[in-house]
Design brief:
The structure is a single chain. It contains five helices and ten strands, in the order ββααβαββαβαββββ. It is 22% helix and 33% strand. The chain has an eight-stranded mixed beta sheet. The chain is an alpha/beta fold.
C-alpha cells in the first residue's frame, strides 16, 4: 500500500530553511546515509516525488550543472514557469490541487511510497486532505530563529521510532487521523 511520507531535515527550533532559503546549516552536518532513518534505505522505498517550487528552485540554484538527482517521476507544485530540462528527467509541473495529483502519484509509485521532498506548506496541504501518512524528520543540533517552518499547520502525530544518526536525532511519526 502506498504511503505518503514527508521526509526532511529540520533545525531544533523547527525550520527547514533559513529566511533566504539556505540549507548550509543542514548539508554540512555529519550523518550516515545508510544509518537509522538514513537516505539510502528511505529512497529505496520511494516510487514518486512531490516538491514545491522553492525546493525545485533550490535544486536549480545549488546544482545548476548537475544532472537531476532522482530517477523517479516528480511532480512540482508551482505557479512559476521553469526552464525545460534537457537531461530526460521525468518532472511534471502542475497547478492542480494535491488531492487530484495524489491519485496520479499513487499510480506512478506502483505500490512504493510517495516522498514529499520539500516544502512544509506542501506537506501541510497533503495533511489537510488526509493524504499524509508519516513524517520523518532528522533534527539538526542548531537553532535558526526564523525561516521556513517544518509544518505550518497543527498536526497530531504519534512517535513510532527515534534514533541518533550522526549529529541528528532522527524521528519517525505516524499521522494521527480523526
Amino acid at each position: 500500500m502506498t504511503r505518503t511520507v514527508y521526509y526532511t531535515g529540520s533545525s531544533l527550533d523547527g525550520f527547514i530553511a533559513t529566511t533566504d532559503h539556505s540549507l548550509d546549516w543542514l548539508v554540512t552536518r555529519d550523518n550516515d546515509a545508510d544509518g537509522p532513518m538514513g537516505y539510502n534505505p528511505f529512497i529505496a522505498t520511494i516510487g514518486a516525488l512531490a516538491m514545491g517550487a522553492s525546493t525545485y528552485q533550490w535544486l536549480l540554484d545549488n546544482a545548476p550543472e548537475d544532472p537531476w538527482p532522482y530517477s523517479l517521476p516528480a511532480w512540482v507544485f508551482t505557479h512559476r514557469v521553469f526552464p525545460a530540462r534537457t537531461d530526460g528527467a521525468d518532472i511534471r509541473f502542475i497547478q492542480d490541487p494535491v488531492e487530484v495529483v495524489h491519485k496520479q502519484m499513487t499510480e506512478a509509485a506502483a505500490d512504493k511510497d510517495i516522498w514529499i521532498v520539500g516544502g512544509g506548506d506542501l506537506a501541510g496541504q497533503f495533511a489537510d486532505q488526509g493524504l499524509l501518512d508519516e513524517v520523518v524528520v532528522s533534527i539538526a543540533p542548531v537553532t535558526l530563529g526564523s525561516g521556513a517552518p517544518l509544518l505550518p499547520r497543527r498536526l497530531e502525530l504519534k512517535l513510532t521510532e527515534l534514533a541518533p544518526n550522526g549529529e541528528f536525532a532522527a524521528a519517525r511519526y505516524e499521522v494521527v487521523r480523526g
